[in-house]
């Protein structure tokens, strides 16, 4: 009996200690800096609009067909869907009753006004690098948005991923808040790439629990549950001045002499990157250019293709390419400058995973309409006009021709789409 009492007492003590840990205040976090301005000024509000564009907030916080920034867009994760919140000035369902201190704590520490731990689908792991004056400016601009009453759509995460316990544990594993000294040490390019631009959220692969694999930072990988891959931002070799200029044009307009963005990156360019001023664009390019060259990430598991099958696919693919692709992309995959991307040397084409090229071939796609490229040329879908074996054949051909060297695409891989 005495042993049972001891065990019961230990369990109660452990539960009590655990409840304290779960609900403890941010004692381990650096105290938040005070507000930079009590009453926002017009220049501060204008600066906030620009910063909100850099953060691409409208993309996640606008549901399809919904009012801008009113929330409700589903953010798919391997654990279920998280729905974005209302950022308009509505008192009941938006940020109308928030203060700039509440907003700054959400951005820097990942805690809501009501003290909840926020889902890591909201990239506070990057926003923790935000300066106080920038947070205040963003909040000042968001407060100028007309109020839209739209209640929060409940998340549909599987148990236990949607619980505060799981979020608290995730933070203990993966979230290290930045200090003021960390932020002050960043140059402008790092501040934009690692902070407000939250590039790592897509361009760094994630582990089984959704935490970023920091040892593979910016090396690309699958964007969980979106059905697209983010390409590596790490140069495979030192970038020349010409290549750096081409990268800047791609980020600003969505297209350059040899390349065009597609998929989720089109949305990033449309809502965010095209609005960058020249100095910030140059700072981002300089930061990406300075990333140390690295090897490609581990190859995904795909159905194997024998040498005989590969040869057969290539032969058929050459015929399909001449009939359906060469008119735009050229007989030698050279493309057409600033119109149709080259396929020779194309990063998507040469990626180990064929996910992006499969998406574009089957479903088509357009670069974004930008000030620098207002009427983009698009890729038509071929899912209705080409058989699955023909899709596998033409992609195998393209991925192994003109100096390209990527794995063959099997018919099984196409069928899975």
Short overview:
The chain has 417 residues and is mainly α. It is built from 19 helices and four strands.
Order of helices and strands: HHHEEHHHHHHHEEHHHHHHHHH
User: Could you name the ranges where pLDDT drops below 50 across 5 or more consecutive residues?
Assistant: 5-21
Q: Report the C-alpha radius of gyration, rounded.
A: 24 Å
Percent in helix: 40-55%
Could you say which structural class the secondary elements and strand pairing correspond to? mainly alpha
Question: Within the largest sheet, what's the order of strands?
Answer: 1-2
Could you give a short account of the major beta sheet? 2 strands, antiparallel
Strand content: under 5%
Overall pLDDT confidence? 91
Report the strand count.
Answer: 4
Silhouette? globular
Contiguous helical run count = 19
- End-to-end separation in angstroms reads 62 Å
Protein model, in words:
The chain contains 19 helices and 4 strands. It has helices at 2-23, 42-54, 57-60, 100-109, 124-127, 132-142, 164-174, 180-184, 188-196, 200-203, 241-253, 264-271, 278-289, 307-324, 326-329, 347-350, 355-363, 388-398, 411-415; strands at residues 74-77, 80-83, 221-223, 228-230. The longest helix has 22 residues, at 2-23. Helix 2 packs across helix 6, helix 4 packs across helix 6 (132-142) and helix 11 crosses helix 13. The radius of gyration is 24 Å and the shape is globular. The strands form 2 sheets. A two-stranded antiparallel ribbon has the order 1-2. Mean pLDDT is 91; it is low at 5-21. A hairpin with a 4-residue loop joins strand 3 (221-223) and strand 4. It is mostly helical.
């Amino acid at each position: 009996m005495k042993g049972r009492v001891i065990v019961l007492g230990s369990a109660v003590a452990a539960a009590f200690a655990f409840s304290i840990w779960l609900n403890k205040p941010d004692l381990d976090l650096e105290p938040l800096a005070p507000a930079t301005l009590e009453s926002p000024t017009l220049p501060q509000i204008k600066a906030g609009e620009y910063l909100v564009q850099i953060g691409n907030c409208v993309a996640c916080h606008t549901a399809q067909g919904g009012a801008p920034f009113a929330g409700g867009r589903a953010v798919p994760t391997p654990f279920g869907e998280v729905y974005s919140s209302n950022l308009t000035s509505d008192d009941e369902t938006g940020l109308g009753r928030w203060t700039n201190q509440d907003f700054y704590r959400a951005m820097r520490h990942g805690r809501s006004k009501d003290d909840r731990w926020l889902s890591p689908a909201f990239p506070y792991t990057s926003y923790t690098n935000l300066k106080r004056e920038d947070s205040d400016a963003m909040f000042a601009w968001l407060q100028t948005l007309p109020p839209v009453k739209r209640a929060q759509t409940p998340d549909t995460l599987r148990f236990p991923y949607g619980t505060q316990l799981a979020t608290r544990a995730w933070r203990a594993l993966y979230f290290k808040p930045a200090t003021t000294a960390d932020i002050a040490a960043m140059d402008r390019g790092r501040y934009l790439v690692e902070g407000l631009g939250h590039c790592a959220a897509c361009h760094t692969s994630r582990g089984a629990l959704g935490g970023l694999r920091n040892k593979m930072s910016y090396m690309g990988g699958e964007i969980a549950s979106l059905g697209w891959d983010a390409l590596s931002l790490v140069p495979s070799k030192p970038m020349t001045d010409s290549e750096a200029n081409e990268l800047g044009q791609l980020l600003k307009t969505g297209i350059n002499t040899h390349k065009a963005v597609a998929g989720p990156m089109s949305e990033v360019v449309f809502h965010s990157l095209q609005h960058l001023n020249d100095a910030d664009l140059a700072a981002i390019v300089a930061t990406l250019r300075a990333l140390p060259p690295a090897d490609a990430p581990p190859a995904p598991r795909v159905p194997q293709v024998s040498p005989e099958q590969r040869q057969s696919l290539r032969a058929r693919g050459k015929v399909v390419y001449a009939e359906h692709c060469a008119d735009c992309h050229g007989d030698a995959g050279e493309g057409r400058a600033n119109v149709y991307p080259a396929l020779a040397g194309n990063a998507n084409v040469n990626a180990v995973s064929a996910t992006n090229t499969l998406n574009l071939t089957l479903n088509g796609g357009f670069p974004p309409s930008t000030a620098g490229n207002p009427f983009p040329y698009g890729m038509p879908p071929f899912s209705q006009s080409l058989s699955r074996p023909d899709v596998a054949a033409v992609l195998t051909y393209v991925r192994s021709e003109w100096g390209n060297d990527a794995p063959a695409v099997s018919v099984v891989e196409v069928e899975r789409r």
